Amino acid sequence: RLDATAGLVHTAGADGYVRTWDFAAINDAEPGEDSSVVFIEPLREARVETGETPAEPGRGVGASGPTSMSIRAIIMHDDHWVVQDDRGSLVHVAVEGGVPVPGEARQLATFHAGPITGLDVSAVSDHAATCGADGTVRLFAYATRRQIFSTKFAAAATCLFMAPLHVDPSGRTAMVGFADGVVRVVLRCADAWKLVDCIKPHRRAVTAAAYSPSGAALATASIDGTVFFLSVGEHGVNLEPVGFASVPGPVTAISWSEDGTTLLVGCETGDVVEMTAPAAGAVDTSHTYEINLQAKFYEFKRPRAPVAAPATHASHPADGDIDGDVDPDAAAAAAEALAKRQAEDDEAERAAVYPVKTLAYIRGGDGSFELTLGGKAAGKVFACSMDAPAPLSHSLTHTAPLTLHRVSASGRLLISAAEDGSVRVGAAGGRSYWHGAVHDGHHGQVTGAAVSRDDRYLLSAGRDGSFFVQVLSSALSGAAAVEPDVDAVDADDADDATPSASEDPALVVADITLPTHYSIEEAKQKTEEDNLRAAAEEKKLGVRGYLGALRREFLALVAENAASAPAARLPQEVFEVDPGLRAIVEAETQQKMDRTRRELAWESEKIAVGLAKLRAWFLDPVEVERVVMRSFLGGRPGFSCTSFRVAKLSEELRVEIARVHAQDSAGGGSRPSVMGKHGGGSSMTSRPSQIIGGAAGGQGLGSTAEGGSDGGALPTKQELRRVQRQAREEEWAVFNATKPDDKYENPDDVAAIDTAQTTVGDFKLKTDPTYVVPEDQRVNTDRKRRQMVLLEEAVYDIKMDFNARFLALRDVRAAVVREVEAGARRITDITDELEDAQQPEGEEALTVLAEPFRAISSADEYPTENRESVTDAQLAAFDAKRKAAAAEKAAGGLGGFGGGGGGGGGGDNRGGGGVDGGNKKGGSGAATAVLPPEGASPADELEEATAVRVSAADPRAAAAAQYPQTALEEAEATAHALRLGHERARLVSRRREMVSTFDASLKDLRREKAALEAELKAADMKRLVVYQELVQLKQFEKRETVLTDKLDSKIAERDDIAVKTEQCTRRLQSKTEEIEGVTEKKKSVLKEFDTMVDESHQFREALLKVFLKKIKRLKKKAAGEDDFDDEEEEEEEEENDDEDFDDEDEEEEVCPSGCDQALYDKVLALRERRLDREDVIAEFNKVVDLLKKERDALGKKSKINETSFRAVDAEIQMFQKEKQHSLNQIDVTVTLRMNQMEYLHEQKLPSDLGKGLVFSRKALARLHERIDELVGEKAALRGQQRDLRREHVQLQRTRKECQGKIGDLKRRAVEVQMLKFGQLIDLEALDRAGMVNRGAEELREQIRAQETQFAGEMKQWSTQVGTAQQELTALTAENTACLNAVAALTKTQRDLEHQLTATQANIFVDPAAARRREVAERDHLVHVVNAQATEIDTLKAEINVLSRKGGQVYS
Question: What pLDDT was estimated at residue 204?
Answer without folding.
Answer: 92
